[in-house]
Each structure stands twice: as C-alpha cells, then as structure tokens.
Specification:
Pfam families: GutM. The chain contains three helices and four strands, in the order αββββαα. The chain is of the alpha+beta class. Helix 2 packs antiparallel against helix 3.
Length: 148
C-alpha cells in the first residue's frame, strides 16, 4: 500500500475518533445542563466559552438564585474531547458581585474570563427581563389535583 493511502486511512481514523469524542463530550454537556435545570428550576443560568492560548478552551456555567446568590459553578477546560466539567463549591453562597470582583482581579486566565462571561450573560438576561416587565424565570410550582 502506498504511503499516501496509509496517510489517508490514518487521517480517516483520527477524524472518526474526534467525531466520537465530540459526541461523548456533547452528551456530557447536555447531562450537566439537564441536571442543573432539574436541581435549580428557578433563577438564572449563564454559560460562556473562551478560547485560551494554543487552543485550550474553557466553558463556564454559573447558576444564580433570583436574588443573585451563586448556587453552582461548573468549569470545563482542556485541549481535548476528554475534558469534563469540574464543580467549584467554594463560590457557592457568595453573590454575583463578589464573584465578579474576584474574576476581574484574575481576568488574565481563561477560566476567569469564561466565568466573567457567564456572569455577564446572567446580567444581560436579568436586565432584559426587567425591561420587558417579565420575571426572568418563573419558579416551578407543583400542581395538586384533588380526586373527583
């Protein structure tokens, strides 16, 4: 077999592995988003992605209560499809303003840029909801049916 044919076969194998890895990573992302939605039905969610140096990417998800208290922070960073979300419980319980101050001090790192982007997304959504006069997210209330 010619050298170029082996190269094409290797390229096809690596491409297929990347497709499978991307599918697995997207499934993980959807699972995290679903779990957050089930755990926190009210409040705000901000997600942001930042491309770091040499291709290292970061995705941050910040969940805040309606009174802007942080409930959850998840960050995925890495150069490959094997990256997974890591939870940051140290931020939970603090306000969005506190986390904004922290991220502005350390904004050089891609992780904090992504967190700052997620907070900015929450702020934009809150402003837009207030401007339109609608609640950002209506809390889910269980319906009780009485037997007839």
């Amino acid at each position: 077999m010619a050298f170029w044919a082996k190269g094409l076969i290797a390229l096809a194998i690596f491409w297929a592995l990347q497709v499978v890895g991307t599918w697995v990573q997207m499934r993980h992302y959807r699972t995290i988003m679903r779990d957050i939605g089930e755990k926190w039905p009210d409040g705000s969610l901000g997600a942001s992605a930042v491309r770091g140096y040499l291709g290292k990417g970061v995705i941050a998800i910040v969940v805040a209560s309606p009174d802007e208290i942080i409930r959850d922070v998840h960050v995925m960073e890495g150069r490959s499809v094997f990256a997974k979300f890591k939870s940051y419980p140290d931020f939970c319980g603090s306000s969005l303003s506190t986390l904004e101050t922290l991220t502005s001090e350390q904004l050089k790192r891609a992780r904090f840029k992504a967190i700052a982007g997620a907070i900015a997304q929450i702020r934009r959504a809150t402003r837009n909801a207030e401007a339109s006069g609608n609640a950002l997210v209506k809390p889910m209330t269980p319906t009780v049916t009485s037997p007839a």
